[in-house]
Amino acid sequence: MRPSIARLAVPAAFLAIALAGCAPAPIYKPTANNIAVPPAQVAREPERYGTADVIWGGRIVNVRNFADHSEIEILAYPLDGSQRPQSNDTGNGRFIAAMPGYVESLDFPSGGLVTIAGRLNGTRTGNVGEAQYTFPLVSVNQSHVWTAKEMSGGHPNVSFGVGVGVIR
Prior knowledge:
Elements: H1 5-20, H2 39-44, H3 46-49, E1 53-65, E2 69-77, E3 94-100, E4 113-128, E5 131-146, H4 148-152
Keywords: Signal
Pfam families: Slp (PF03843)
Protein name: Outer membrane lipoprotein
C-alpha cells in the first residue's frame, strides 16, 4: 500500500522548518534601494548602479587609516542566507569599505571575514599587486566581523542520501 501524499507532506514540512531554524537569520535587512550584484560587476559599470545600497561581504585584505576615516579593502565572496561570506567560493572582485573615524586593525584583522551594509559612492583606481584595478567604494552604515564560532554555527550536522559515507 502506498502512503498518501498528505501523510508525507506533514513530516516533510516539519523537517524543512526544523532545518531552517538551525540557520541564523540575516543580520542586515535590505532596503528598497539594494542591488544584488557582485563588486566586480559594479566595477565594470559603476554608472549603472549610482548610489545604490549593497550588502556585501568577504575577506579583509587590509585596513588603512586616514585623518578622518578608514578604508578596508575586502576580497568579496557570495553571502549565504545568513549573510555570511562563503570563503570556499570564488571571489567576486574587491571593494573598499569606507568607515568614518579610526578603525582598529585588530578589530578588522587581515584575513578575517566581514559583512557590511552601505551605499555605493563611486569607484577608485588602484593596484592589486602590479595590476591596475577599479575598486567600488562603499560608505559603510553597518559592519560585522564574523567569529569562527559564528561561521560554523547554524550548519546542522544532518545529511540525507544513499551510499557510502566517510567521516573525516
